[in-house]
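Supplementary Text 2. Reproducibility record for the structural model of the 318-residue chain.

All settings were left at their defaults, and a single model was retained for analysis rather than an ensemble. We include the record here because the model underlies the residue-level annotations in Supplementary Table 4.
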Amino acid sequence: MSILESTYPKSSLSVAILLATYNGEKYLREQLQSIAAQDMTNWGLFVSDDGSSDATKKILADFADEYADHEVKVFDGPKKGFAQNFLSLVCNPDIGANFFAYADQDDVWMKIKLKKAVQWLESVPSDLPALYCSRTEYVDENLKHIAYSPDYGRPAIFANALVQNIASGNTMVFNAAARQLLQKAGKDADIPLHDWWTYMLVTGAGGVTHFDKSPTVFYRQHSNNLWGMNAGWRASLSRIQKLFEGRFKGWNERHIIALNGVTGLLTADAKKRIDLFSQCRVSSGLVERLMNFEKSGVYRQTFITNLGLRVAILFRKI
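Retained model, structure tokens:
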């Protein structure tokens, strides 16, 4: 039985696209045109702008005029960073739809993105939180191919989500049941990344995640990227390095605090894993730390990053 009080009624709007913007004039037009070119046409665009001082709002207004047959609304963002900007949208009670898609201002969507996601989501019971995500195709500023994001093979479950986000938020589409989880957790959740938080909540509540091995987004790499490409051995070594710089440990701390604040949404299994993972982070004895880590069952998707995770446990960097 679902943890949700009731199933959502069908909305007249199939997909609500949640776009967070901030001084995005350079690439925004291309992203908007890729949204307009989707194979699925029953979408609405909801934008939270975090105080742009360039032409971003003018571009959005022009797009709204050009596509007046679609619902296009722009809200003022909370000005607390990109994660909270996205959470302000997903928690906005004035936005209703059957499915919800995160969108970044500088990417380009493949035409099949929404249709593929919705086809899978419609195969899941409506009261079960469900999240679709995919690989991306890394491109340069001129949309020239660079590489593809990793093709992960291990299950996309909470044991993975607790220590790794497997997909970029720019590929994520989720159902109304998953959206309700995010609303219940709240727009002020102190989390570093909205997409990782979404993956954690959906899997932690007993929902399902589908990782599509085919890319659906052209992920543009440029000098202003908040996050860059995540492929190859250099990227793996970079992630291991970050384990020892303290950022990963700080993120884990924030995640655990946030998850402990929403235990009523989580399964018994998820709560047990959180407790064991928490103990392995604070235990003074090495043997105890390793035992609690193994009992927690948490894992990353690749051999080298799992090795890095265990080394980080030795030095209390998680």
